[in-house]
Prior knowledge:
- The chain is mostly helical.
- It contains 6 helices and 2 strands, in the order H-E-H-E-H-H-H-H.
Amino acid sequence: LKVSYGRIPNGPHDLWVMDDTAVHGPLTRSVADAALHLDVAAGPHPLDPNSLPGVGFSYREVLDELPDGLRAAYSPDLGYAVVQSDVAEIAEAAAGLLPEMGISLEALGTGLPEPGGAWGMSGAWEMLAQLHSLLPEHEEEFGRSFIGGVKAGSRMTPERWGKMRRLRSEI
């Protein structure tokens, strides 16, 4: 279950995180457990200007009352990802169960734009902003690969930022 951006408040942070693609939520063994987490954690928070208001109901209490006309889209690889074969089989089997539950399923025939490089640069830029004051005295305490990725953020330009945001809007 991936909740809507802002459903679970984020923060507090020294810097306001610009990444609106990552959300906070639980890893659970059941939908009921995820609903319980939402009942406890969802809602507005004064330290997160993007947090959403409460929904006015208990997620656990409405699990058996799903609305009619639900739709889902499925892509085995988003048009570009390499997916391990056993994972792909399980995901396809799970998607195949949705119509049995009354959920209309649409298979995506075309892939999405490949966002990895742009999102990686965006993440590196934000991480560099968060860690830059620590690097002069503590850089050696971080792993080489991590610090290399963080330093890549120094190559962010307005043109790259604009390209990344346009790619995000396509997706």
